[in-house]
Amino acid sequence: MSSTDRISGSLIDRQLSDSSADKGNVSGASIKMGKKYKGKTCVYCGNALATSMDHVFAREFFLRGDRQNLPQVPACDGCNNGKSQLEHYLTAVLPFGGRHSTAKANLEPVPNRLSKNLKVRKRLYVGWGKSWSKESGVYVLSSTQPVDNKQLERLISFIVRGLAWFHWQTLMPPNHYLKVMALTESGDRAFEKLMSHPDLHTGVECDLGRGTVVYKGKQGLDQPEITLWRFLMYGGLKFSDEEDSGESASVICAMTGPAVMMK
Ligand SMILES: [Zn+2]
What we know:
The protein is α+β, with helices and mostly antiparallel strands. The protein has one domain (about 5-260). The chain is built from seven helices and eleven strands. The longest helix has 20 residues, at about 150-170.
């Protein structure tokens, strides 16, 4: 993603399909509750002693009724605070790009949340505008919102380390390789193919909050640091460039691997 990507959305209310409404729970993993962090290492830095359980996806991404059974992992104070700051910004800005019905409902508490942090509020409303985008063959006027991709990448980096531990008990080394991308339709098809590579585990598929966050993950058979993730948030966030090339992305993917992959 370029650092000037914009997120745009027409906030179309879409009814959830029956199939996605039925799959509300995390599959293939048990929820860690209570003082399960005691004596555990923080899964985000892989270094400090954990002091609490942290929701891998902040509860604020979800409507109040959809916050049960969200994945939790042991975290230290430092990581918890750093991640909270990213979440404070992104839980406010991301619903603007969603097409899912919960994205619109999620916007309602945003002004209240933002009034507590003027800095975030300023950034959120700077650059507010309208743009034309193509939806199912027709151009529609939609509101656009600049998104700080560095912050989104940093949050995804926390999330993939959290999920690797939650699903497979893999503690990622602190200096591992990470690549985060917003995928266009053709990019998504290529990534799906990559995810079905025989050297990757069976993997996980989860739907949290009735389609609010849908993700898939795969892990390397021999090298647990190799993981591939595909995230669909709010039914697909629309990312487009400042110089709109006409092709927009709606899926976020992430790959991790050993540090040597950085070369
Ligand atoms: Zn930590």
